[in-house]
Specification:
The protein is of the alpha/beta class and 425 residues long. Helix content is 54%, strand content 11%. The strands form three sheets. Strands 3-2-1-4-5 form a five-stranded mixed beta sheet. The protein has a two-stranded antiparallel sheet with strand order 6-7. A two-stranded antiparallel ribbon has the order 8-9. The two termini are 55 Å apart. About 4% of the residues have low confidence.
């Protein structure tokens, strides 16, 4: 007798329900969020026919956590059901809109019983790609934290120290650059910055790691920091300087975290066998490649074709048709992290690939805006990526399918780019 399990997840306990193929309740329990609860859950599954050859599938409303990791380790199908979808299914079982944890567990189990084919189980990614996902997502979060911390500091400096923003604007990373952070830590107020001598500025620039054009940079910063500006009252300016030091600590922590996580993500990504294929694409470096691999994984059965991957990434449009009305719109429900790195990938490919630039220009000439043209380019590139990963070949834009090589041939602008065998130059 086939069975289906559902788990209503909570922070300290979980409600479990098991139903058969007719929808009858076979077992229910409330388990704790620890090893004892896991053993109790596995015992209930074993009592009702669970085995290594025929594991009972389980539905849960999250894809993370120790419980999900342990269930995936048992090689069973684990379905992460969207809470909004689960709420719609609940109305099929309780028209009075009553709600309880046990009812939610039964609803999740019945979702698998009736509509398992309409939902996708969690992919069977390797341990290496799961570690890459942890590092790449943490690094992306650190970058977002760094941007937020930098914006807060910039907004604060604009209220009492605008000349510092002018002085650091030409720097590559602006306020996030090591030079800007080092000088601001030493002189957080306009009065302290104006008191810095050329020798002190030169020492701070060297401390920040600058190796070239030190004298030129010293003179530029000296002139900018000594330029006349409006001032707050002395005590107010001093207090705002203390607040700057606090905001600067948050920015320093975010910058350090982003750099360390980027190094760890790249180092782990380069150990994966798909790294060579992914980085063979124009515009994809080791870090952006790690972000792409983190979201698509290495379970090749996860996406049956390139269309599924394009929809998951948000690159494919959505068509809504009713009668004579047809509307084609950008996809809103998507993997936001993959879509985010997709725009970076497409933008970088414009300067790294003649074919990508030709495709983008043609879309612009056809009336697309910049964002739409970039999304369409990402759509083509990720389709090529699916092909290359499936066939285990590296991307080669200038190689024709027959093997003839024509330099500068913008193949991407018309058809799928050529491919070369993995490991060859």
């Amino acid at each position: 007798m086939r069975a289906f399990g559902g788990i209503d997840w909570a922070s300290d306990h979980h409600d479990f329900a098991l139903v058969n193929q007719d929808g009858a309740l076979l077992a229910k329990a409330r388990i704790s969020d620890d090893l004892t609860g896991l053993q109790q859950l596995l015992g209930l599954l074993t009592e009702h026919g669970d085995s290594e050859d025929t594991p009972i599938p389980v539905a849960i409303e999250t894809s993370r956590g120790l419980l999900v990791a342990c269930l995936r380790a048992t090689k069973r199908a684990v379905y992460a059901i969207n809470p909004m979808a689960a709420a719609r299914y609940r109305e099929r079982h309780a028209v009075t809109r009553k709600k309880s944890d046990q009812l939610d567990a039964m609803v999740l189990a019945n979702i698998l019983r009736t509509d398992a084919a309409a939902h996708r189980p969690l992919p069977e990614d390797s341990e290496l790609v799961q570690s890459i996902a942890v590092l790449a997502r943490a690094q992306q979060d650190a970058v977002w934290d760094r941007t937020q911390a930098g914006n807060k500091l910039r907004s604060h400096l604009r209220e009492y120290f605008p000349t510092f923003l002018t002085a650091t604007q030409p720097l590559r990373d602006g306020l996030c650059s090591p030079i800007a952070r080092t000088i601001l830590a030493a002189a957080p107020t306009p009065a302290q910055a104006a008191a810095l001598s050329r020798a002190q500025l030169r020492s701070l620039i060297k401390k920040a790691g600058r190796k070239r054009s030190i004298e030129t940079e010293t003179e530029r910063l000296y002139a900018a920091l000594h330029a006349p500006q409006m001032h707050q009252l002395p005590l107010v300016e001093q207090a705002m300087g203390l607040q700057t030091v606090t905001l600067l600590r948050k920015l320093e922590a975010a910058c350090t975290s982003a750099d360390e996580l980027a190094e760890a993500a790249v180092e782990t990504f380069e150990k994966h066998p798909d790294a060579e294929i992914i980085t063979s694409f124009p515009g994809l470096g080791a870090l952006t490649g790690a972000r792409v691999l983190a979201e698509i994984g290495d379970d090749r059965s996860r996406f049956t074709d390139a269309k599924a991957l394009k929809a998951y990434a948000g690159a494919a449009p959505v068509t809504r048709a009713s009668g004579k009305s047809v509307a084609v719109m950008a996809r809103r429900v998507k993997n936001q992290r993959l879509a985010s790195v997709g725009y970076v990938w497409a933008f970088s490919a414009l300067t790294a690939s003649p074919g990508a630039k030709a495709h983008y220009d043609r879309r612009r000439n056809d009336g697309d805006r910049h964002t739409a043209a970039q999304r369409n380019l990402f759509n083509r590139m990720i389709g090529c990526l699916h092909h290359c990963l499936t066939k285990r070949v590296c991307y080669d834009e200038v190689k024709l399918p027959q093997g003839q090589v024509v330099k500068g041939f913008p193949l991407l602008s018309r058809r799928l780019g050529g491919c070369r065998p993995l490991g060859r130059s």
